Amino acid sequence: MTNLTATVADPAASDAPVIAYPTPLLRIDGVTKKFGAHSAVDDLSLDIKAGEFFALLGPSGCGKTTLLRMLAGFEAPDTGKIELNGEDIAAVLPHQRPVNMMFQNYALFPHLNVRDNIGFGLKSAGLTRLGIDTRVAEMVALVKLQGLEKRRPDQLSGGQKQRVALARALARHPQLLLLDEPLAALDKKLREETQVELMALQRQLGTTFVIVTHDQEEAMTMADRIGVMNDGRLQQVATPRQLYEAPASRWVAEFVGDINIIEGGITHRDSHRLTIAGRDVGTLFAIEPRQPVGDAVICVAIRPEKIRLSRRGPATDLVNSGAMNSLEGVISDVGYLGGRSLYKVKLDRGATLRVALANTARLDVDAYSMGERVAAWFAPDDCVVLVQ
Amino acid sequence: MSARRIFTAPARLAAIPPYVWMVLFFLVPFGFVLKISLSQTAIAQPPYMPVFGLSEGIDGLKASFAALSLDNFRLLVSDNLYLASYLRSVLVAVVSTLILLAVGYPIAYGMARLPRRWQGIAMMLVIVPFWTSFLIRIYAWINILQHDGLLNKVLLALHVVSTPVVWLSTDSAMYLGIVYSYLPFMILPLYATLAKQDPSLIEAAADLGVSRIDAFWLVTVPLSLRGVGAGALLCFIPIMGEFVIPDLLAGSNALMIGQTLWLEFFTNKDWPVASATAIVLLGLLLIPLLVYDRLQRRQLEAR
């Protein structure tokens, strides 16, 4: 059907193998949507592949919901194109799109029972009465709501409502399922269980899911790829691991997870290794990023769990040769979080580093305490160099 | 069970004034009317007998009780005049309520879909006519509808008609007056339920492949039935007993029960028959109330 003919890459010929990608299921091309003078979505382009679980992640007001509503057809883009299977769907009304949405507040019909809610869109999908009954039964089984068919929405718990909303959105077998903060109304434990179920369901059905969330853990857990949005623009589109380990900008680095940011200037470069004078830190070594940094003023980002602590520093020859960064300071704060502890280290040069250590032993007689002198050390590989 | 416990002693005390009000201004007068309906007309002051009193002792009171009879109610059933009046009242009330629903629903729907800041203004426009006396407004309609009134002048000037049309003293004029007067009572409860509706339900319906028109019938209308019921009741019950509008705008060949009652009371000075008429009207009006109450209770039980 699709021409997934990857030319056998000759490793010597080129860095990037030439691959003829299939047409993406969804192509968003230069889409802008303005409300008054404010651009909710600003010249945004994105391809989403068939069968993908894609998450749009961003703070509230970043435009992710507006983008989702444009995909559903509730808003029309001011400029740009939205293509589904290579066809522009700008003029296609919501009720004619092979796209279904699961609403944030579920938007269940309060006057209809579970069965009629799930079957609501099936008559217009051209199913016979028998077909509707079969499909509804299928969906009820899929989301494990057997026995609740006759209940009305206000007789259901939050988790059950969420399942009805999901079943209703999936009942028409959409090519694309949009989920607007689907788990926001659930408590933490139920949310985590539901995340796993949603992933299993998506794999089982093979439907393309686009989920909007402000919860980065949720996006990380479920999505194949994440698009991080801010101010109506995509800041980075990457797998969860890339997003966390190789953020494309300082904003993304600070938005996703916890991170130490050290501002500084490049003083020396040799064979992909940078020597950096960090503000309030001292000399640091870092690996030059794949796209060389032009500016002399940069920042170094390092995740708290990449830093190790010890009472004595690493071997001096490691430090002197630039194979390890070692910074000395005093423990200024200890936060016990169960699985791990978060330490703040006030460096002698003035900066404060956050360090996360796993609590691997139940009785840790050796734990660091307030005021203790330590060396905080980390490898140049673990530093991410970002433009300011 | 717990709902009962919410009402503490002071909260229960707060419920006393309405009960006192009901007893003083509904139950006691109702007792008088009921008693008069069981009496006989008399040329006396008051114009009926027997009159209860202790002037003739306990025996006199007993004799008064023995004199009460259902004759007036028998008269109501036997004379076609009353039956026709009741039927006409029911017919007028039903037709008027249906017209009110047909006119009021689109207006309420439109109001609920207005931008928030316009909704208050629209609500004012619905209510403002109430600031003028009801009678003045009905007389204004007489002015508009009469032989050389505004309506005929406009129609003649536009050459829609060649001779003035008779509007006044017709059923059309009466329906016009009723619909005009009762429209706010239909619009406001409808607007209240429609404005409360979650707009994402309509989006959900559209998302599930249902067209705008179908979504209206499948989602908007069923969810507004409570408002429809409230509006219909608020209009139906007073229209049943309406006296002024049919008297001023309709012809005199058919009477509504309110008009018959007025005739009995003021023209014939037959208080007992007038009271019996009122009692039966009250009984008739209980039917739609009970039906509505039952429907609402069923809805609550379904939850």
UniProtKB/TrEMBL annotation, chain A:
It is an enzyme of class 7 (translocase). Keywords: ATP-binding, Cell inner membrane, Cell membrane, Membrane, Nucleotide-binding, Translocase, Transport. Signal peptide: none annotated. One of its GO terms (biological process) is putrescine transport. Residues 26-256 form the ABC transporter domain. GO terms for cellular component: ATP-binding cassette (ABC) transporter complex. InterPro entries: AAA+_ATPase, ABC_SmlMolc_Importer, ABC_transporter-like_ATP-bd, ABC_transporter-like_CS, Mo/tungstate-bd_C_term_dom, P-loop_NTPase, PotA-like, Transp-assoc_OB_typ2. It catalyses: ATP + H2O + polyamine-[polyamine-binding protein]Side 1 = ADP + phosphate + polyamineSide 2 + [polyamine-binding protein]Side 1. One of its GO terms (molecular function) is ATP hydrolysis activity. It holds the Pfam family ABC_tran. SUPFAM superfamilies: MOP-like, P-loop containing nucleoside triphosphate hydrolases. The complex is composed of two ATP-binding proteins (PotA), two transmembrane proteins (PotB and PotC) and a solute-binding protein (PotD). Belongs to the ABC transporter superfamily. Spermidine/putrescine importer (TC 3.A.1.11.1) family. This is Spermidine/putrescine import ATP-binding protein PotA. It comes from Tardiphaga robiniae.
TrEMBL record, chain B:
It is a multi-pass membrane protein. InterPro entries: MetI-like, MetI-like_sf. The chain crosses the membrane at residues 20-38, 86-108, 120-142, 173-194, 215-239, 271-292. Belongs to the binding-protein-dependent transport system permease family. CysTW subfamily. The keyword Iron does not apply. One of its GO terms (biological process) is transmembrane transport. It comes from the Bacteria. It is found in: Cell membrane. One of its GO terms (cellular component) is plasma membrane. Keywords: Cell membrane, Membrane, Transmembrane, Transmembrane helix, Transport. Residues 86-292 form the ABC transmembrane type-1 domain. This is Spermidine/putrescine ABC transporter permease.
